[in-house]
Amino acid sequence: MTFINSDEKPPADSEGKPSTSSSHGSSEWGYDLYPERRGAKPQASFTDVLLGRKGRESYRKIDCERSVYRCIKTSPLVRLMVGALKSAGCAIDIRRHISCEECAPEVSGGYDPILNQVVICHNNTYREGMVQGVLTHEFIHMFDYCQNNLDFKNLDHLACTEIRAANLAHCSFVSAWLNGDTSVFRFKQTHQDCVKSKALSSIMAARNITTDQAVDAIERVFTKCYNDLEPIGRRIRRNSLDMHRAFEEGFYFGYDDQMK
C-alpha cells in the first residue's frame, strides 16, 4: 500500500523530508500507521517488556534487514522488480530505498513517494516470504511512480497501482479462498474479486474516504489496470514455476538486477 492521502504535500524540511511536527496532520497523510516516519520512538511499558511484546525491536529490525538482503539476492520476483526499476531509470540502492521500521499492527509495509522509499514493517512481517511479498508489492508502486508518472494525489491513479500490485503480487485461488473472496463452488471471477478486495483494503487504509468512493475508483480503472501486467508479464500462480519464468523472461526486456 501507499500512504499518501492528501491533495497537498506534507510540510518538509530543507532536505525534502516530511516534517516531524505533530501539526502536519499525520492522520490525514497516513503517517500514524508509520510512526517512525514522524520521528516517533516506540514506547514500552514494563509489562510489555516482561511479556515479550516489546523490547525486541532492534532484533526484529536486524532480522528484517537480513530477510530483505536475502530476497534481493535470491527471490525471482524481487530481482525482476529490481531489474525493471533499473531499466526504468530508478535503480535501487538497498541502503537508501528500503527501510525496516515498526508500524501500526494493521499494515505490513508501504511506499513513501516523498522519500521514494519502501517501508517493511518488521513488527508485522515474521517470515521471509512475507518480506518478499511486501517488497514485490511496494516495488510495483515504485515502478508505477517512476515509469508511469503516477500521481498518488489522484484517487484513480492510486486505485490503479493498488490493483496492479494485488494482481501481480498477491492474489491466487488459495489466497482468495482464505480471504473469503471465493469458494470451491465458485471459480468464476475468483482472481478479479481477490484483486478488488485487496485493492479496496489498501486504499481504505491509505485514504480518508468512504468505501463507496474507493469502490467507484476501482471500478473506473479496473479493466485497464488489471490487464496491465508490466513489468512481471504474467499473473503468478501459487506452487508454480511462474516466478522463475518471469525472471528468466526479464532478460529479453533488458532487466538487469545488479544493484549499484
TrEMBL record:
GO biological process, one term: mitochondrial proton-transporting ATP synthase complex assembly
Biased composition (Basic and acidic residues): 1-16
UniProtKB keywords: Hydrolase, Metal-binding, Metalloprotease, Protease
A Pfam family hit: Peptidase_M76
Domain of life: Eukaryota
GO cellular component: mitochondrion
Annotated segments matching region Disordered: 1-36
EC number: 3.4.24.-
Example of a GO MF term: metal ion binding
Low complexity bias (residue ranges): 17-28
Family the UniProt entry places it in: Belongs to the peptidase M76 family.
Protein name: Mitochondrial inner membrane protease ATP23
Phylogenetic classification of the source organism: Eukaryota, Metazoa, Ecdysozoa, Arthropoda, Hexapoda
